[in-house]
Amino acid sequence: MSPKAVKALEPAATDPSFIRNFCIIAHIDHGKSTLADRMLGVTGAVADRDMRAQYLDRMDIERERGITIKSQAVRMPWELDGQTYALNMIDTPGHVDFTYEVSRSLAACEGAILLVDAAQGIEAQTLANLYLAMENDLEIIPVLNKIDLPAADPEKYAKELANLIGGSPDDVLKVSGKTGAGVEELLDRVVQRIPNPVGNPDAPARAMIFDSVYDTYRGVITYVRMIDGHLSPRERIQMMSTRAVHELLEIGVSSPEPSPTKGLGVGEVGYLITGVKDVRQSKVGDTVTTAAKPSTEALPGYTDPKPMVFSGLYPIDGSDYPVLRDALDKLKLSDASLNYEPETSVALGFGFRCGFLGLLHLEIVTERLEREFNLDLIATAPSVTYEVTTDDKKTVTVTNPSEFPGGKIASVEEPMVKVGILAPKDYVGTIMELCQGRRGALLGMEYFGEDRVELRYTMPLGEIVFDFFDHLKSRTQGYASLDYEPSGAQTADLVKVDILLQGEQVDAFSAIVHRDKAYAYGVLMTERLKKLIPRQQFEVPIQAAIGARIIARESVRAMRKDVLAKCYGGDISRKRKLLEKQKEGKKRMKMVGRVEVPQEAFIAALSGETETKEKK
Amino acid sequence: MAGPQLIADPAPLDGALPGSVLDGADARMLSVYLHVPFCRVRCGYCDFNTYTATELRGAKQSDYASEASAEVAFAGATLRSSGLPARPASTVFFGGGTPTLLPAGDLVRMLESVRTSIGLTTDAEITTEANPDSVDADYLTTLADAGFTRVSFGMQSAVPHVLATLERTHDPDRVPLVVEWARRAGLQVSVDLIYGTPGESLDDWTRSVDAALATNPDHLSAYSLIVEAGTKLARQIKSGLVSQPDEDLQADMYELVDAKLEAAGFSWYEVSNWAKGPESRSRHNLAYWQSQDWWGIGPGAHSHVGGVRWWNVKHPAAYAGRMSDGVSPGAGRETLSAETRELERILLLSRTRDGILISTLPADARVAVAGLIADNLVNAEAALRGRVELTLRGRLLADAVVRRLTV
């Protein structure tokens, strides 16, 4: 048993050999936050009475969903064999869309705790992050969590982990973040196994940004890992990608409350505050150096995160448009990967075309907008980026079906992803069927332990942004997990399908789909709309078309009777109120040409409510 | 009565009318509506203000003629004291409920009170609604002798299963008999039909229309069944016991009754009403549609005098209390703005055969008329002669027409 360290090491003057930098790789609900909290308690970094459940996850939405969106770093003291160490735990975002951010967090560490639920085993996305950690040459400490659960099967999953990373099942530590069992041994293991950081203290300062967070009171807080040299308070620092120079207002470490220090030295992890108000000025992966003695060589691995998935966000109540604009402006301060521009739609009014890192990112942003800003939103079907080349050799980048060029198309290129799916072996057939239907090409298949399989595919991203995950979950009773990463582009026979109401195109329903699926999409949407569009005084044809060619057609028959032929006697007021109510209802209709469509119909058609209702 | 709640002012207890009602009063006729809020049973589709014996909470049917006559006297006094010109009533209409649930003598007493307190024009149209099973030849003769000129029978259908769904209890075979008795008593006869009842086929409806025509009435009303919130029928539809009336079938039914009636020598003069000739039209209903003045007597009855509308307390017991206190039974009232009066004028007149003079329409509405002609909703020839008159299609889509005329 190791005692709590009596006195923590002084930041800015810590010998790198007594520093350990590590992160925890885990699936969403495998107990990472609970374990992190337990470590804070065991090391004395947080007094028990201050312990807020899952201390590290700040945002409500994270706590409720049990996932970590923004990472942070905590410095904890720990003593082993009479020597005090400084452990920096770098919290990684736990989801598929944040691969780049994860890779930067990993690059800030020398080791990683691979944390796996002892009742569930490893999940696809943990696997992806594990591969990433191994590529970065991180020392991996395998740990099974939740051993207190009745359903825990540590022997089985220890074997699985040993198979994955090599070594013996006996090396797998067994802990319970909930009860604290095994946590002290784990901290000892971190000190023993993870290499200390190495760097040149005399070289020009180089610090890698692995996270930046917007704080209402303090502006942007930038989290860095020092590689070489030293940073001191009041120094002028420079961002190497933009050459922008800022004055360092505060430098310090989180333990876990921010505490200012005399600086940061080689191998240390801490935060910088410059008064900057926008996280875009402090980009993850960028290198921080000093203006006085700048480094000439930036650290490797920096890229600008590129949005992969696009969707139009519209307020259901059109008068909320300014609220949505302000809300996006605010979110942007803390989310460097969110981008958006104004867009108008006949069907949905005024909104924004937004770019996201992936589907979860889209979901999180939408949910934050709804929750934190009290907005009711409708999102158009997600789309990806296509490179469309026309016959006259012009190439257009299309992130919105409305930008798809008319006329002759020479080729369309679509983004591809490598997909990893981990599931019990009984579901292999149904998963293959699903992936085949989404134009997936099987890359490989591998067994883990006795009964679980990893399937690897390349697939068009466009095929998975639209309800793929829902289908995967429902076909596997929720047992399958999914991970994907960008993997180039391919040319494919893609077409734009438009939906027309009485000959007028309804922009929100246009979609870019594979030619083989155009008919199915057309039938789906025309049938949906037929059920949703109220009868008009004239027949309303609903058509799906590729260019000028109609591929599917339905129609809403003309309304023949719209008269309250009832005897209301002398109660004229009632008759008038009914008329006024009717007129009020008409005012809320959107006009597509001469066709009056209630906004609810557009929303229901986009969300597929009609099919859901029928299933019930 | 179910339906939208009116936001309005409370009605003053003395019933006094504002001076604004005098404007144009010389050009308006006066009518009287007498509501009889009693029924033996409540029909499943009905949301009118009517009560069965067990729902009366102490109000007595036998006292009703006296109470209503007291309001008639109150009406006469109020109209006189408001400075309106003396105008005898040109129409009187007894509606319900079931007016004929009262003894004929009660209806006669109430009519006499109108004659005494308000007066009747020499050619006054005096109508009562009647249930085919609550009148006999003597009853009808008594009414005719007292000055009634017209009776409107609630036939609704000739088909037993349709009557059963509507929960009408009369024997359809009795309708030709009562019509014949009314005719012998010298009364004009109208029959009411309802179409679009759940389960009613086009054949059923044909039988009903033919049966109604076979009684050789002077006037016929055909109303589409409207499922009103809060009725038993609405609950039955919600729970899936009966099916929602189909609007396309209702349209077929409307076209069928219109064709049969036109062939039999009737002409439509309002969306739901047909008459053998101009003299057979219901002048009382025309008074509503032409925004004339009328005083509604009885619980829940609505009145209109010169742009002021009011309505009485709904329950017969509350009504009886007001009458015994000698105060107005008014529950709420509204004074219509010029815009609202214009809206109502278009709403009501556009549904009549005589229609609206295009020259009286605001500019926007006159522009809309061209579109309505193009959409075959408004008769082009009538429009050339200066009137908005609905086509057959326009009558079926009359609400849409009104919306377009009142944008």
Automatic annotation (TrEMBL), chain A:
Location(s), subcellular: Cell membrane
Keyword terms: Cell membrane, GTP-binding, Hydrolase, Membrane, Nucleotide-binding, Protein biosynthesis
A Pfam short name: EFG_C
Domain of life, per lineage: Bacteria
GO molecular function, one term: translation elongation factor activity
Binding site for GTP: 29-34, 145-148
Major location category of this protein: membrane
Membrane topology: Peripheral membrane protein
One GO CC term, this protein: plasma membrane
InterPro entries according to UniProt: EF-4, EFG_III/V, EFG_V-like, G_TR_CS, LepA_C_sf, LepA_CTD, LepA_IV, P-loop_NTPase
Top-level class of the enzyme under EC nomenclature: hydrolase
Reaction catalysed by this enzyme: GTP + H2O = GDP + phosphate + H(+)
GO BP annotations, alphabetical order: positive regulation of translation
PROSITE patterns: G_TR_1 (PS00301), G_TR_2 (PS51722)
All residue ranges annotated as the Tr-type G domain in the record: 17-198
Enzyme Commission number, as recorded: 3.6.5.n1
Functional summary from the UniProt entry: Required for accurate and efficient protein synthesis under certain stress conditions. May act as a fidelity factor of the translation reaction, by catalyzing a one-codon backward translocation of tRNAs on improperly translocated ribosomes. Back-translocation proceeds from a post-translocation (POST) complex to a pre-translocation (PRE) complex, thus giving elongation factor G a second chance to translocate the tRNAs correctly. Binds to ribosomes in a GTP-dependent manner.
HAMAP family the record matches: LepA
Protein name: Elongation factor 4
Organism: Mycetocola miduiensis
Gene: lepA
From TrEMBL, chain B:
SMART domains in alphabetical order: Elp3
Subcellular compartments: Cytoplasm
Keywords noted in UniProt: 4Fe-4S, Chaperone, Cytoplasm, Heme, Iron, Iron-sulfur, Metal-binding, S-adenosyl-L-methionine
Pfam family, one: Radical_SAM
Matching SUPFAM superfamilies: Radical SAM enzymes
Top-rank taxon: Bacteria
Chief location bin: cytoplasm
Gene3D superfamilies xref list: Aldolase class I
Segments forming domain Radical SAM core: 24-267
Gene Ontology cellular component annotations, sorted alphabetically: cytoplasm
Gene Ontology MF term list: 4 iron, 4 sulfur cluster binding; coproporphyrinogen oxidase activity; metal ion binding
PROSITE patterns: RADICAL_SAM
UniProt-listed InterPro entries: Aldolase_TIM, Coproporphyrinogen-III_oxidase, Elp3/MiaA/NifB-like_rSAM, HemW-like, rSAM, rSAM_sf
Biological-process GO terms, alphabetical: porphyrin-containing compound biosynthetic process
CDD domains reported for this sequence: Radical_SAM
Transmembrane helix in keyword set: no
Entry annotated with the keyword Heme: yes
Biological role stated in the UniProt entry: Probably acts as a heme chaperone, transferring heme to an unknown acceptor. Binds one molecule of heme per monomer, possibly covalently. Binds 1 [4Fe-4S] cluster. The cluster is coordinated with 3 cysteines and an exchangeable S-adenosyl-L-methionine.
Family (UniProt): Belongs to the anaerobic coproporphyrinogen-III oxidase family. HemW subfamily.
Name recorded for this polypeptide: Heme chaperone HemW
Organism: Mycetocola miduiensis
